Amino acid sequence: MLTAKRLHFTAGDEVPEHRHEQGQLTLALRGSARLTSQDGWWLATPLSAVWTPAGLLHQACYTESSEIITIHIDTAQNPVLVPDCLTQISVTGLLRELAHEACCLVGEQANHEELHLVTQLLMRQLTRSTRAVELYIPEGRDKRLRQVIAFLRNDPAIPDTLEQLASQVFSSQRTLIRLFEKETGLTFTQWRERLRVVIGIERLLAGESVLAVALAVGYQSAGSFSVAFSRVTGQSPRAYTSQIHRAECQR
Asked: Where does the UniProt annotation place the signal sequence (predicted)?
């Protein structure tokens, strides 16, 4: 079976490190949720939910006012079918409606037959839904790498080159090139671009203009940000936000 909650958060809210006995699906109806584990962080939006497997230590934070549905599902009976790691799930119309229905059904007066049916349909969505564009920022384990990542995460507009960043953590450019590729699976250029786009999505969801977001995350124009955004998400910032607004208006 499952439990479901509709939660409201304001900008700056945080949920400290914790783990769940059941798997958790985090779906943003409005705004976003940043879910962080020891390996990096994922962004849940109205288009991309995040599945967190049972037992995984993680925390959450919110950079803008957000309305979130969390669904905890007992996957013990079907452990092979659901993802066993943090996974981005594309939010279809059906998945969104099932999440709303789960919130309505859970409670003392719950119809257990209907709840069981919703649970089974949600499980099918988890195993069959198209994987969404990964709004995931891997952070690696090496201390020097994590220091550089912390600099950039705190201020994505920092213009420093990798060589300049390496000198700040008493390392070399060559070492950091190797660490980025080995521990994040991305080159430094790819990683920085993804970071700027994902943080840009958070700011777009908070209502900032494309130009304001572009300048805030380190681009000189809305056009250059749009090119990077399209490389990461497959669509322009305006097309992406239009899709978000349509999803938010469905309920």
From this structure: none
| CB of 41 closer than 8 Å to CB of 139 | yes
Range 140-145, long-range pairs (CB < 8 A, 24+ positions): 140/39, 140/40, 140/179, 140/180, 140/182, 140/183, 140/184, 141/38, 141/183, 142/179, 142/183, 144/169, 144/170, 144/171, 144/175, 144/176, 144/179, 145/176, 145/179, 145/180, 145/183, 145/184
Residue whose structure tokens are 């090139």: 177
Alpha helices in 34-84 (DSSP H): none
Q: What is the pLDDT of residue 126?
A: 78
Task: List the domains of the chain with CATH numbers.
Answer: 2-128 (2.60.120.280), 141-248 (1.10.10.60)
What lies within 8 Å, CB to CB, of 50 at 6+ separation is: 25, 26, 33, 35, 42, 43, 44, 86, 87, 88, 89
Closest by CA to 148, choosing from 210, 195, 85, 97, is 195
Is residue 78 pLDDT above 80, yes or no?
no
Residue 249 corresponds to which amino acid? C
**Computed from CA positions of residues 131, 37, 168, 196, in that sequence, does the dihedral angle turn out positive or negative?**
positive
